[in-house]
Amino acid sequence: MLDDRIAKLSDVQKRCLRFAAEGRSSKEIAPLVGLTHQTVDQYLHRARMILNAENRREAARIFAEIDRAVPFKQFELKPTDVEIREEAGISEEPVERRQAQPKSLGLPPIGGPTNDLTRTQRLMAIGKIALFLTIIVLTVIILFAAALDALSR
User: Fold this and answer.
1) How many angstroms separate the CA atoms of 57 and 110, rounded?
2) d(CA 75, CA 62)
3) What single DSSP character describes residue 52?
4) What is the pLDDT of residues 25-69, one digit of tens each?
5) Is residue 141 within a helix (H) or strand (E), and if so which, with residue range?
6) Which long-range CB contacts under 8 A does 54-62 form with residues at least 24 apart?
7) Which of 43-49's residues contact partners 24+ apart within 8 Å by CB, and which partners?
8) Where is the composition biased (Basic and acidic residues) (predicted)?
9) Rounded to an integer, what distance in angstroms lies between the CA atom of residue 72 and that of residue 66?
């Protein structure tokens, strides 16, 4: 009777159940089967109904016992290895060593690759920005003074 119910499962449902038997979440299963995690949840829900199981873990256990492809893992909390990309700015070096490294101009990098400007080109760019901001501030002050003068008359 249980074999009849297993035969009713689609191939995708079986794959999802195998991964669920390994203790994987829907979000972990989704990229492995090429679906969204919501779709994986739907496949597991339908498989649970077909197998007449209380929950997805029981459905995975029932399927694993019949399938014998993957032994069922009991629930366990353990950290998973996280890939740390270099561009993420996360380093495995001790904090003391990271803080001791000299930084250019004393500022930390703020995302993206560093530019290839020379020191003179950087200073020129900063000077242009400062000049532009000075002109803007003076214009605002002159307009504000003119508005006050017009209102006072």
Assistant:
1) 44
2) 15
3) T
4) 999 999 999 999 999 999 999 999 998 889 989 998 888 887 764
5) helix 119-152
6) 56/20, 57/20, 59/17, 59/20, 60/17, 60/18, 60/20, 60/21, 61/21, 62/2
7) 43/10, 43/12, 43/13, 43/16, 44/13, 44/16, 44/17, 44/20, 46/13, 47/9, 47/13, 47/14, 47/16, 47/17
8) 86-99
9) 11
pLDDT of residue 144: 94
Q: Which amino acid is at 2?
A: L
- Cα angle 138, 142, 147 (rounded to 5 degrees) comes to 145
In the block, which residue shows the tokens 């829900």? 45
- As assigned by CATH, the class of the 2-67 domain is mainly alpha
